[in-house]
Amino acid sequence: MDTVASNPQSRISTGTSGLDEVLRGGLTPSRLYLVEGTPGSGKTTLGLKFLIEGRNRGETGLYITLSETEDELRAVARSHGWTLDGIQLFEMVAEAEFGAENDQSLLHPSEVELGETVRGVIERVEQTNPLHVVLDSLSELRLLAQNPLRYRRQILALKHFFARRNCTVLVLDDRTADPGDLQLHSIAHGVISLEQFANDFGAERRRLRIVKMRGMKYRGGFHDFTIEKGGLEVYPRLVAADHGRDFASEVVSTGLPGLDALLGSGLTPGTNALLIGPAGVGKTTTAVQCLLAALGRGQSAAYFLFDERLATLMMRSRTLGMDLQPYIDEGRLTIRQVDPAELSPGEFASAVRSAVEDSGAGMVVIDSLNAYLHSMPSDNFLVLQIHELLSYLAQQGVVSLLVLGQHGIMGDLRSDIDISFLADTVMLMRFFEAEGQLRKSIAVLKTRTTDHERTIREFRIDRSGISIGEPISSFSGILSGNPVYSRSDDTLMPIRRSGEGEGK
Q1: Same domain for 208 and 268?
Q2: Residue 191: other Cβ atoms inside 10 A
Q3: Cα 332 from Cα 175, distance rounded (Å)
Q4: Helix axes 138-145, 148-164, angle to 10 degrees
Q5: What is the pLDDT of residues 327-364, one digit of tens each?
Q6: Nearest 5°: phi and psi at 433?
Q7: CA-CA distance, 334 to 318, in Å (whole number)?
Q8: What's 171's domain CATH number?
Q9: Domain stops at, among 187, 212, 237
Q10: DSSP letters of 2-64?
Q11: Residue 496 above 70 pLDDT?
Q12: How confident is the model at residue 95 (pLDDT cuts 50, 70, 90)?
């Protein structure tokens, strides 16, 4: 990555806000840039939005197409709700498409020499005198060139021509050349690479990378993006170190005195807590209780729901006396049901950032990590991405609650992933049996910020909510999943009567 920074005030916007953020302000004007990518990766959409942004600033633009027709370009624009009025379109059409009603210039890319084609481009630019140009695409010029030397010379001629006219130019290339051919990379001032690939399951994924950008600092690495109505939606790679801020660090309550005692007085802003245990033990309900405590303090919160349906969560919470709807109506609670098969890690991180920075969320719940991680088996380094996300939330002073399910109900319980080393606080939840009843226990294995209680407590979820009992002293082996009963213990909670509901 180039380390010399140019003045951001001299940059011009690409029209795509996420890309401008990656470029730390936009493009240096009066330069030639290469946008490369396979068909369908979004090059044309990016080019059109660049010209539309310039038009909106009152600057002239020219789109030169050697492959698509004007009708196709206008159809792309209509699909995004755009109009191309005020932008010059120069279509190199076939003879059959040329008629009296078409006032475009006529060229035959497959029949004329490369030099004639380049001269046609130059003449059109001289006639219209644009400030911004998109040339789509170089694959046709490459076919006409027949040899690399001639091709390079003509591209250099175009580059110097545009430079003399102070044009900012995007040249699009569909990567039909030899992958090892980097001639264009050496000629262009900057290179933006767009990629599209398909997973074994779910929607296709797209990402971009700044290959080079002379004289500019930019955010390196891959950045996920999607093509939405209105253009490309780029999700810049999250770098936690860029997002620190000051915040109060006083411990806050979970809303449950027994759980606060286990935690050593509560949860600390800027930390994350991992709730781990088998299915049905109460991880989600405990997270909802902590969420309600934060909302009760006047904070905003965000809940990202991967595992179950939103309607199920709302109904069960309301049944347990934890109605979330009033806070949603107030706008202080956002619950997003996520389809992980349709979501990239970058888009998810962007949604979390939006909840924190735009909605002011002081607590974020991710339920659960299992679904998030398992839905993206082809995405490498997901644990590192989660680490960066948690670091970001910590620097924003957010309390993060992470739900992680384990396989099995009793005995040896395991998880497909282990992120306990990333957690500041780990709450372990287990089933155990006593007096013919299936019971639940909770213990805090570690906290990095407080001196937590080393005991194990029983807890219950029923129609009155969550109740946490006194520390249990007559059982051993609860954490192993094989509890051993030693004597009658008055610290166990009273036996639940028939008809009292349990919760997840």
Answers
A1: no
A2: 21
A3: 47
A4: 130
A5: 999 999 999 998 877 788 899 999 999 999 999 999 99
A6: -120, 135
A7: 16
A8: 3.40.50.300
A9: 237
A10: --PPPPGGG-B--S-HHHHHHTTS-BPSS-EEEEEE-TTSSHHHHHHHHHHHHHHTT--EEEE
A11: no
A12: very low
Q: Which residues of 425-445 are buried (b: 16+ CB within 10 A; e: fewer)?
A: bbbbbbbbebeeeebbbbbbe
Whose tokens are 């003509």? That residue is 154
Q: What is the pTM of this model?
A: 0.84
326 pLDDT above the threshold of 80 = yes
Q: Are residues 27 and 127 in the same domain?
A: yes
One-letter identity of residue 292: L
Query: What is the average pLDDT across 143-151?
Result: 77
3-class DSSP state of 89: strand
Number of domains in the chain: 2
Q: What is the pLDDT of residue 140?
A: 79
Please say whether the beta carbons of 405 and 415 come within 8 A.
Answer: yes
* Same domain for 202 and 324: no
For residue 1, the model assigns a pLDDT of 45
How far apart, in whole angstroms, are the C-alpha atoms of residue 375 and residue 378? 9
Res 116: pLDDT: 77
In whole angstroms, give the CA distance from residue 283 to residue 287.
6
95, HSE (Cβ side, Cα atoms, 13 Å): 4
What is the structure's pLDDT at 98? 38
Point out the least confidently predicted range of 54-68, 212-226, 452-466, 473-487. 473-487
Among 207, 237, 267, identify where a domain stops. 237
| 480 dihedral zone (left: phi>0; alpha: psi -120 to 50; beta) | alpha
Task: For residue 164, give every residue at least 6 positions away whose Cβ sits within 8 Å of its Cβ, in sequence order, or none.
Answer: none
| Mean pLDDT of all residues in 264-280 | 94
Q: Are strands 205-213 and 222-228 parallel, antiparallel or unpaired?
A: antiparallel
Radius of gyration of the chain (CA): 30
